[in-house]
Amino acid sequence: KIDFLNIDVEGIGYEVLISNDWNKYLPDVVLIEVWCDLTLMSLLSMPESELLKSYGYQLIAKTVNTAFFKRA
Questions:
Q1: Of 60, 45, 56, 58, nearest to 14 (Cα)?
Q2: Which of 14, 15, 16, 24 has its CA 20 to 30 A from that of 67?
Q3: Are the beta carbons of 27 and 71 closer than 8 angstroms?
Q4: 12-19 — which CB contacts under 8 Å span 24+ positions?
């Protein structure tokens, strides 16, 4: 079981996310590096957010370069 997944891969976070077997590995918390100064609302429309939402995750916080998702 994976509790915490931190993705910091210099702009290819979506590619890393789609490579995961989401039927087998569902971390409780996923952090993803974001390279732009986006608001929480604009982060929701990013492909990474859409993908994680489809697996039951919610965007719960953001720091300067990191978006935090938690499984509902």
A1: 45
A2: 24
A3: yes
A4: 13/48, 14/47, 14/48, 14/51, 17/48, 17/51, 17/52, 18/51
**What's phi and psi for 11, nearest 5 deg?**
95, 0
5-32 pLDDT, tens digit per residue, is 999 998 899 999 999 999 999 999 999 9
Please provide residue 25's backbone torsions phi and psi, each rounded to the nearest 5 degrees.
-120, 110
Residue 51 above 80 pLDDT? yes
Burial of 57 (0-12, 13-18, 19+ CB in 10 A): buried
Strand order in the sheet with 66-71: 4-7, 29-33, 66-71, 57-62
